[in-house]
Specification:
- The protein is an alpha/beta fold.
- It folds into two domains: about 20-45 and about 295-390, Aspartate Aminotransferase, domain 1 (Alpha-Beta Complex); about 60-290, Type I PLP-dependent aspartate aminotransferase-like (Major domain) (Aspartate Aminotransferase, domain 2), CATH 3.40.640.10.
- Helices cover about 45% and strands about 15% of the residues.
- A seven-stranded mixed beta sheet has the order 3-11-10-9-6-4-5, sandwiched between helices. It has a three-stranded mixed beta sheet with strand order 1-2-13.
- α10 links the parallel β9 (about 205) and β10.
- α14 (about 295-315) packs parallel to α16.
- It is globular, with a radius of gyration of 22 Å.
Length: about 400
Amino acid sequence: MTTSLIDYCRSEVEALHASRTFKLERVLEGPTGARVRVDGRDILMLTSNNYLGFANHPRVVAAAKKALDRWGNGLGSVRFICGTQELHKELEAAISKFFETEDTILYMSCWNANEGLFQPLLQEEDALLTDGLNHASIIDGVRLCKAKRFITPHNDLAAIEKALKEAQACRRRLMISDGVFSMEGEVAPLPELVDLCARHDTTLVVDDSHATGVLGATGRGSAEETGVWGKIPIFTSTLGKAMGSAAGGFTTGPKPVIDLLRQRSRTSLFSNALPPAVAASSLEAFRMLLEDPAPVQKLRHNTLLFRRLMTEAGFNILPGVHPVVPVIVGDTAKALAMSAALFEKGVYVSGFGFPVVPQGHARLRCQISAVHSDEDLHGAVDAFIAVGKEFEVLG
């Protein structure tokens, strides 16, 4: 006897409810910042990608409003037909200047950038190497590509070198890694990857979605943070996190690569152009960061303060310098229950469990912003301590 699709979905949802792993979707009643309004309450936001606080910055919002009047709401077209405005070219030029690359192509999201990257560049005769913990968008992009796949254990440099040696029989080789692994707050070993790729004639691509505007002295990301700026030829990244937390993504690198993507990348060719207001606000965010990297330094201060306070309180947090701070609790149901308890105490932080993270490694993923005050972070740690004791995570 067959089961209908609707019946299958109903049974799966019931199972998620029974296991206490059904994810709630909270509705915000205003803009996002250090605090948000939910259910009539002001809550400390500790689960947003709004790393620099640009999402509701007056200059960013003003740029979007001005663009609506000047450029309209949308293009009603893909880029290559009639969807390219001067605004899009200005933003691509600004991104290229920021990354010190030759050219940039915009997408509706970094997911689209990653999905549309590999298939135009690689064929059956080529090799594609990818870290086992790379983002889901990279995984989907890899699946769409016909190149021979080498999926290496997470940050296992010996396994990566072995795969690179095996891939020498292939015509061309490309390796992709997250610059920051977003569930871990872990920076990739880029100096070692740069060296390995150079020795094995392989092009390195880094998805810097959680590093652009976040890491490095000027916010230029994981390459600046790890001392290999100028040694990575291609980046993908997002406009939807530190750079105003709007939509949009991009690939930036050598002009021949970008030119070929404009001609053959399906997620660009068959997706509408980025809305003018999003392009304008993102452009303003890059201008702000180029003018003054002070928000990056404030973010670093806040991150190190929160990490120190949580460690001193006795929580099991993964080490690092990134504003993603995972608090490991082990059990998925416990992580979600602690998230709910923290929300009741005025702290909005998300719990994650399997299959998003490995079994037994469920966590609360805290995300720090430049707009948090020291008082905010001390208050958040106090709430964590109270909830940690209630759920026997702390002694």
